[in-house]
Specification:
With 410 residues, this protein is an alpha/beta fold. The protein has 14 helices and 13 strands. Strand 3, helix 4 and strand 4 form a beta-alpha-beta unit. This is Metabolite traffic protein EboE.
């Protein structure tokens, strides 16, 4: 839905629904989107964040009639797509995903081709009033990037897609934006690393030369065009797991000139004090098909682990001590008190305060894709109720932040 020129477009991520193939995604879209719209936006145009997998991108690329059918269905139901999740290329539901979620990564031709296909689809199906965004992987799983040559390949492939986006806008008049999403355990992980990557690789002399070669345009043109088409997704959950100060991190990106093409609201599981009772209760969150990157803060030091299970095993081997855990397990944003645990929802609140003051992005999204693996005691209602409550909570929080800001300047 459109929240106004200052606050932008808001949607929930359809990554929560089955959608590994286009047939699955189409069924999910047609089943759930009208039901959610009826609750949260019955009388206004409704924005959609669409998951397009590699298989779906190929299906839509090969079938012009299906693209036209999708555009017509959206129009008939007073909906529009403004962003696509093209991060998970392969299966994401009903099977073990873990670090495979990053494959194929940005070192591969498959990732380049897939992302260009999604860009072409977006240029065709989205309204002309929208500059759609593509959410994509943080280059690669960190363990796979071992040398300078690896980084050069990753960067060149990203710039190849930027060159394609420049050509799409030249030929169609449609601007499509690519947004890299930093994530724990990946090559782009922290806000500082992300800013350094843009400065040293994308905006550098070498990055400009690559883009000049790919486009045939002079440096005077490409330095502006790369910022027009390449930025980041800021996922509040990811950066909260990194123990970042969310408001400060957003201001760092803003001040560095890194475009935030999507501000993503998601809350992580937070254990403010690790104890034997809490560790026992955490077992209900370990039976997951997704990575659960966990960061421990102890005596001012951060220790990063790939899964919650690893953190529990390390604690059992050496229990005790004052420590806090934050784990990459998305929990509903309208929940704050989970009994023995908490969440990092306050990071979303801080992000919205910054956004209310100085708009950070015109694409806003709630991404809680873990409905299928949430412990039963956290599920209330069905998935339509769940995402509707998230959208309602987000809007109320943004209204409160805006009102508080207005009151402070009176």
């Amino acid at each position: 839905m459109f929240l106004g020129d200052r606050h932008g477009h808001l949607a929930y991520s359809t990554l929560v629904h089955p959608g590994d193939t286009w047939a699955e995604m189409r069924e999910s879209l047609e089943t759930y989107a009208p039901a959610v719209k009826a609750r949260v936006s019955p009388d206004e145009t409704y924005g959609v964040s669409l998951r397009i997998s590699g298989a779906s991108a190929q299906t839509l690329t090969d079938d012009p009639a299906e693209r036209r059918r999708l555009a017509s269905w959206l129009s008939e139901h007073d909906m529009y797509v403004f962003t696509v999740n093209a991060f998970p290329h392969g299966p994401f539901k009903g099977r073990r995903v873990m670090e495979d979620v990053y494959e194929p990564d940005w070192a591969t031709e498959d990732r380049v081709r897939y992302t260009c296909q999604v860009a072409d689809i977006l240029a065709e199906i989205t309204p002309s009033s929208v500059a759609p965004s593509i959410q994509t992987a943080p280059l690669a799983f960190r363990a796979k990037v071992t040398c300078e040559a690896d980084v050069e390949v990753l960067t060149r492939n990203v710039l190849r897609v930027v060159a394609h986006l420049i050509e799409v806008e030249r030929t169609t008049g449609r601007r499509v934006k690519l947004a890299l999403e930093p994530e724990p355990a990946c090559y782009l992980e922290t806000t500082e690393e992300t800013i350094a990557y843009f400065r040293e690789r994308i905006w550098s002399a070498s990055g400009a030369r690559v883009l000049c070669d790919l486009t045939g345009l002079p440096v005077s043109e490409v330095v502006g065009l790369v910022r027009r088409h390449l930025g980041v997704v800021f996922d509040v959950c990811h950066q909260s797991v990194e123990f970042e100060d969310i408001a400060a991190a957003l201001r760092q990106l803003r001040d560095a000139g890194v475009p935030i093409f999507k501000l993503q609201a998601a809350a992580a599981l937070r254990v403010p004090m690790v104890t034997a009772d809490v560790v026992a209760a955490l077992g209900s969150f370990t039976d997951t098909i997704y990575l659960s990157q966990t960061t421990e803060s102890r005596d001012g030091q951060l220790t990063r682990m790939l899964t919650l299970t690893e953190a529990i095993d390390r604690w059992k081997a050496q229990p005790g001590g004052v420590r806090e855990w934050r784990t990459h397990f998305h929990v509903p944003v309208f929940l704050d008190d989970l009994g023995e645990f908490g969440t990092t929802r306050d990071g979303i609140e801080r992000a919205l305060e910054v956004h209310a003051d100085t708009p950070l992005s015109d694409h806003l999204e709630i991404e809680t894709y873990t409905w299928d693996v949430l412990p039963a005691h956290l599920k209330s209602g069905d998935v339509t109720d769940y995402v509707s409550r998230e959208l309602e909570w987000f809007q109320e929080q943004l209204r409160s932040a805006t009102a508080a800001l207005a009151a402070s300047v009176e």
